[in-house]
Amino acid sequence: MPSDPDLALRGRLIRGLGALREMLPGSFVERQRSCGKANCRCADGQHLHTQYQLSVFAEGKLKTFNVPPQAAEEVQQRVDLHRRFQEAAARIAQLNLRRWLSEKEAQGKAPEKP
C-alpha cells in the first residue's frame, strides 16, 4: 500500500470508476411535449407526453437520439458514469500535477554536486 496519500487517493479514484466500458458521453434529457395529434390527451397542453433523449456532440455536430422509456434509467446511469469518469480524470490529473511540482521543487532544493 503506498504511503503517499495522493497515490492512495489516485488509486481509489481509479478503482472507483467501475465498468468504464458501459459509459456513454453526452447529456440525458427528459422532455414534456405534445405529439401533435388533434384527438390526443396532450392536445390541451396540460397532459404532455414524456420523451427521453440522449444529446451527444459527435463528428462536429450535436446529435440527439430518442431513448425508449424502458431504457431511460440505464442510459441515464451510463451518462452519469461518463460524468463521474471525467470528474475523476480531472482529479487524478490535478494530483499528478501537484506531485510533479513537488518533485520538481524537491530537486531544485537538493544540494548540487561539485
Salient structural properties:
alpha+beta, 2 helices, 3 strands, three-stranded antiparallel beta sheet, 114 residues
Low-confidence stretches: none
- Taken in chain order, the helices and strands follow as HEEEH
Q: How large is the count of helical segments? A: 2
User: In total, how many domains does the architecture comprise?
Assistant: 1
- Give the strand order of the largest sheet, numbering strands 1, 2, ... along the chain: 1-2-3
Mean pLDDT: 85
Tell me about the largest β-sheet.
3 strands, antiparallel
Helix content: 40-55%
End-to-end distance: 37 Å
Q: How does the helix and strand content classify structurally? A: alpha+beta
Strand content: 15-25%
Overall 3D form: elongated
Instruction: Report Rg.
Output: 24 Å
- The total beta strand count reads 3
Q: Can you walk me through this structure?
A:
The chain is α+β, with helices and mostly antiparallel strands. The protein has one domain. Helix content is 43%, strand content 21%. The protein has two helices and three strands. It has helices spanning 5-15, 72-109; strands at residues 27-33, 49-58, 61-67. A three-stranded antiparallel β-sheet has the order 1-2-3, with helices on one face. β2 (49-58) and β3 form a beta hairpin. α1 runs antiparallel to α2.
